[in-house]
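Input chain follows. Return structure tokens only.
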Amino acid sequence: MNRDEAEQFAREWISDWCARDVDRVVSHFAENARFVSPVAAKRTGSPVVVGRDALTQYWQVAHSFGSFRFTLDHILWDDARQEMAIVYARDIDGRRDRACEILRFNSLGQVVAAEAMYGAEGI
């Protein structure tokens, strides 16, 4: 993946989330992908979600929200590490914050590791 492809990926990732298309979001992940999130820790008791099936199940919660909108701010791309940070605003049921997802890709362009970080509400 290069910078242009990373930017395209980020735009599609935001669009897929806004459409709540969990299957499409998960399709970009490798079978054994590892996702780390403080929200996962609250919902599941563990901050780590491993594998496509577990990610699909975990992210199905997106369908339960009344309003759900992600807005891309920018990305940071590290070509040598094949790693991207997607910085975006989240507006979920009127709660607004900034977030960052760090995604690492394998040679096939699949996400193998990801970590989510969230800012303070109301920003």
